[in-house]
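Lab notebook, bench 4. The sequencing result for the construct came back, and we need a structural model before the next group meeting so we can plan mutations. Quick request posted to the team channel:

Model the 3D structure of this chain.
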Amino acid sequence: MNVSPKISRVLHTRKDVNNKSRVQIRITFRGERRHYSTDFKFTRAEFREIQGKSKPRYFTKSEIHKINKQIDDVAEQYKSIIDEMTVFTFGLFQQELDKIEEKYSLELFLLLEKEDKKRRLEEAISSANQYKGAKVSLKKHLGKEEILMVDVTPSLLRDYEGEARRNNLSSTTINMYLRAVRYVYNQCINNGYLDRSLYPFGRREPKYVLPKPNRREIGLETADMEIFKKAKPKIRKNGKGKNDQFYLDLFLFSYYTFGMNIIDILLLTKGMIHNSFIDTARTKTKIHNPVNLKLPIRPEAQKIMDKYISDESEFIFGVLKGNETKTNIKERTKAYVKRINRVLKTICKENNITTHVTTYSARHTAANQLLAENVPVGKISQLLGHTDIKTTQNYLSNLPDYNIKDEVMKIAM
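Done. Here's the predicted structure in token form:
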């Protein structure tokens, strides 16, 4: 080509509800411009910072470098397409893009990789790791570098499960990875790339049936929960001046708020408290399935909040400052979960509690307590923040019914 198209990056003028606009790759050729959207979204000020036109304020230098690398990768992909074209027109360029998109839609590993990248941009790291892990595991255990979606059959899925089990992967891990495969297969059907009759997953043979995950009963019996309520951890400081009682209080607060996740507890602000209710949304689901949580504040939860609330911070527990990125918040939460679990493990050891107790035990124990008090499943679903009551029913079916146990023990046999 005598004249090569010019490639640059710009920010779309249209803004979303968060005042952010999508980054576009602009291609200019003989006075004509076309814009191609990316998955990146920033405010005008953030984009200036990424472009190096203002001092770092919203991102660290390493984050800016990483973002620029990701955007440059997209631009470089477009440049590679253009370099291979003998004649450039926007129409022919679009045809090449469509071919690549079709390949992403019909090849399993590329599609898993696409979902991985998408979730990392949303900072849904745990979800992204599920897709990344699925890709690595299927490649390893099936010994294939490419699998067309039409070749994802019940037989192939059974082959993978068999090989994965021979390599000591648990039912939980296999279930997690193949749910990622199921998701991308459903996306292909929804986009019209695959016929629904080819769908390999099902509830019975000859379709492929997902293995049930290994579930540990981590809900606490009433007597054991009372031990945690009355425990007095040794006053030793961890982290930034916090002692073990603080970490135990976070666990108890989670229990008294019906299993509120630790990340949501750390994000809890004074502005979320209204008329003796906590008004918030679960961080775990608010990106794809936003659900507003309206939790009644029990006296025990209020007592814990009163211990830590101060005029120095808008956050109830004073761990966050308000200027952290999503990644920073998740890293901080992970550290606090680790410290809470250490305190819980110590209490278990000191009191001969054999149940494996973690931060998630608060949620399981609260759910079991609500069930024991005959609270309707619909209300339990609402308090747990589930988007589908079927999720709650499945959740409750895996909890031990200590009421039944107590009743049976009373019977003379």
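The CA atoms of residues 12 and 267 lie 31 Å apart.
Will bring this to the meeting.
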